[in-house]
Specification:
By secondary structure, the protein is an alpha+beta fold. It has one domain: Nucleotidyltransferase, domain 5 (2-Layer Sandwich), CATH 3.30.420. It contains five helices and five strands, in the order E-E-E-H-E-H-E-H-H-H. The strands form two sheets. It has a three-stranded antiparallel β-sheet with strand order 1-2-3, with helices on both faces. It has a two-stranded parallel ribbon with strand order 4-5. Helix 2 links the parallel strand 4 and strand 5.
């Protein structure tokens, strides 16, 4: 393994092969994180859609299935996949995913800003902006810590 490459990161296809990670998150309408994951940059984002949806929310003790599901899931063009749309519909989730090879201005921006704002909050923690951790477990741990701290900000009274 070349020096400076962590085991949990892969070659970033958009950055001339430099190592990198992608942070995936499912947020509610206010930007509160419901589920998150970190993957190497060379893994397609669509592979994380269903695992994120399935891991969100409290689980039923008997079946292990989530007791709450979102009514709709918004995503950009990276999530354009008819099989995944069908699987979301099977879960009673209305897929609102951007379509590739269509004109920009789909209107998803008025919903996507909530996710972008979340990433702005998350990247306020310097540890998440750059890959400095050697293992994927440590990257995931710091990402989960950021998710927890962002949730805590919503729970604290505004005068604290």
């Amino acid at each position: 393994m070349p020096s400076g490459v962590s085991r949990g990161s892969g070659k970033n296809p958009t950055d001339r092969g430099r190592p990198g990670v992608k942070q995936h998150v499912l947020v509610d309408g206010q930007g509160i994180p419901l589920a998150g994951d970190v993957t190497p940059a060379n893994i397609p984002e669509i592979k994380e859609l269903l695992p994120l949806v399935d891991s969100a929310g409290p689980l039923d003790e008997q079946s292990g299935e989530p007791t709450h599901r979102p009514e709709a899931a918004y995503g950009d063009r990276a999530y354009d996949s008819e099989p995944h749309r069908a699987k979301l519909r099977q879960r009673q989730i209305d897929p609102k995913l951007g379509k590739r090879r269509t004109a920009h201005g789909s209107g998803l921006g008025k919903y996507r800003w909530v996710v972008e704002r979340f990433f702005s909050w998350a990247h306020g923690f310097r540890k998440l902006r750059f890959v400095t951790e050697k293992t994927q477990e440590m990257q995931f741990a710091f990402f989960n810590l950021a998710l927890a701290l962002i949730c805590l900000r919503f729970l604290q009274p505004s005068n604290c």
